[in-house]
Amino acid sequence: xxxxxxxxxxxxxxxxxxxxxxxxxxxxxxxxxxxxxxxxxxxxxxxxxxxxxxxxxxxxxxxxxxxxxxxxxxxxxxxxxxxxxxxxxxxxxxxxxxxxxxxxxxxxxxxxxxxxxxxxxxxxxxxxxxxxxxxxxxxxxxxxxxxxxxxxxxxxxxxxxxxxxxxxxxxxxxxxxxxxxxxxxxxxxxxxxxxxxxxxxxxxxxxxxxxxxxxxxxxxxxxxxxxxxxxxxxxxxxxxxxxxxxxxxxxxxxxxxxxxxxxxxxxxxxxxxxxxxxxxxxxxxxxxxxxxxxxxxxxxxxxxxxxxxxxxxxxxxxxxxxxxxxxxxxxxxxxxxxxxxxxxxxxxxxxxxxxxxxxxxxxxxxxxxxxxxxxxxxxxxxxxx
Length: 385
Prior knowledge:
Elements: H1 2-38, H2 45-61, H3 66-78, H4 82-95, H5 98-102, E1 128-134, H6 149-161, E2 173-177, H7 182-195, E3 202-208, E4 211-212, E5 223-224, H8 234-240, E6 242-243, H9 244-254, E7 259-265, H10 289-295, E8 301-305, H11 323-332, H12 341-358, E9 366-369
Parallel strand pairs: 1-2, 1-3, 3-7, 7-8
Antiparallel strand pairs: 4-5, 5-6, 8-9
Helix pairs in contact: 1-2, 1-8, 2-3, 3-4, 6-11, 7-9, 11-12
């Protein structure tokens, strides 16, 4: 009897252990692919040469990763290595690649700077599209719940649908909050990319929730934690959270609209009170400058974050929202919604700084834009300039 029990235990270890190790390696491969994609800022050969080493490592540790093979083929083709690129693409098709099916390509900007500045934002606004995300609850209890993230998203959606302020069509606004998985968020980003396909469209992305860094000793927020994100072990974090580069690549390479505003509130101070080592993985800092620079590539791109790097974002009394969202909503209501984003930012920054100072804290929203991005008016009527 005892011998049989030992034999059974040995069999189970033999069956399960290889699978666990293989899964860990494929989780690592996913993060290596993200790191390689993040190397691409303007699409130079030097950036591709830097990233290809990461992708080669990804296909070595997880040979069945179709996405790793697909991106390897793109990077090798960029470097003029046609034979290697053809081989990698064949592997990607064999294993299956979601990124291949989407036609993702980090080397192709969807909106290129125009020869004449006057042509940067051509014509009237055809249609307006918005993806609004608020994640307050997390299955992994290492993530403290966020009191106002979902409410911030709901209130922002309500403002966009106001015919006297936001002037968005209900069918063109996807507001998701509550039980938002990484897969669901990717599906919503794909919806946005498929929908905003005209240069004269306008796009708004609003995200409120926990952000996490890749290395726990840095302040870079490279991932957005979703409802099903697992904080530990670390490889699971990278496999189950949404890479910030996914949002970046949708905006940079797939959305053809020449007016896009990204509003990020992914720097909540939720780590306070977490007593395990997991606390250090919940970043109190805003997105890094490198992340923001990548997001603004192209024409007509604006990124506003709720706080500067290494600062926290605050919420609650005396407001029923996060400080950032409260003043963002207030600013967007000015002039019946006919207010440019640079003026929105000036108002939000001034008032958020004051509100944080009143509780003896520091919070400074940040603003980055590409060519003519500062001129965008979120509340403009369709058909308006």
